[in-house]
Amino acid sequence: MQEPLVTRIPSVLDDPSSLGVARVYAEALLGAAGDQASEVVEELELFTKTLLNGSTGLEEVFANQALGRDEKLAFVEKTFTGRASEVLVRFLQVLAQHDRLDLVRAVSHVAALELQKKLGRKQVQVTSAAPLSPQEYEAVVNRLKETLGLEPQVEVKVDPELVGGLVVRVGDMVYDGSLRTRLEQLRAQLRERCLNEIQRGRDRFCYSA
Predict the structure, then answer these.
(1) Is the entire prediction scored with pTM above 0.70?
(2) Which of 20, 186, 203, 209 is the most exposed place for a label (fewest CB within 10 A)?
(3) In this structure, are 26 and 108 located in the same domain?
(4) Tens digits of per-residue pLDDT, 46-101?
(5) Domain boundary residue among 94, 116, 138?
(6) Residue 123 burial (10 A CB sphere; 0-12, 13-18, 19+)
């Protein structure tokens, strides 16, 4: 049986300089949030998913070097005061004052990871070809718990194109045990074998000639 394909996907954490700075702000945010850390991190994640990933133009404003710190600070206060929690607004103000609003997405990512670590949890995304039964889900969770040594926070998705098997994403690592991938690997191996056979046939023909 073939081993699952393990790949690594690009991550905001690939930039060491951004990672270091983002971690400082993430830890400060978690400290300021205190007992509300889970709620604040969830709010920040929702903020990055809905506003920064949408067509609002916010990310362009945050990264615009033509705007000074005072302009960005005024923009944050006008746009988010009364619309977001006080902790999140203060956090955005701090980033604006230090001209680091372009790191919001990175800070959100690191803060979520740090919070999961403190809570002894690990975010895991499991994609299957068909919905998992309660027994299958329990088996997957138990296997992940045993493998990771942490309590997995499992998000299950369904992708019929996988044909069978599972694709498990833990952080920026992907373990691909889907039937689709195994079939693709088998197809590639057969193609390589055919090419080798053709080449050996040519070599024998040239040698006999």
Answers:
(1) no
(2) 209
(3) yes
(4) 888 887 766 677 878 888 888 888 999 999 999 899 888 999 999 999 999 999 98
(5) 116
(6) middle
